[in-house]
Amino acid sequence: MEDLAYKIQADFMKALSHPVRLQIIEFLRKGEQNVGTIVKALGIQQSSLSRHLTILRESGILAARQQGLLIYYKIDDEEIFKVLKPVRVLLCKRLRKTEGALRSLERE
Length: 108
Known about the structure:
This protein is α+β, with helices and mostly antiparallel strands. About 70% of the residues lie in helices and about 15% in strands. The protein folds into two domains: about 80 residues, Winged helix-like DNA-binding domain superfamily/Winged helix DNA-binding domain (Arc Repressor Mutant, subunit A, Orthogonal Bundle); about 30 residues. It is extended.
């Protein structure tokens, strides 16, 4: 049972492991958008975007609805931003450490 819990967590994290998916999530922070708007804003092809949207929807990060011919996507649960924030904080700390180490090399 514990292995299943780890697999579920890993699959969720895998859904977040692509730069385009993170861009999509950040873009949708502003609110629901249709596919055409997302394509224009992010500058990626619709076929590529569709694959990423499917992964995010299947992982429960995004919700979709169809209105006529348009499909709209939105963040399904705003808690995702509480997941991403500590990652940013951690990465900023690592970057500061790296910058400090590089500065010390310059002094040598």
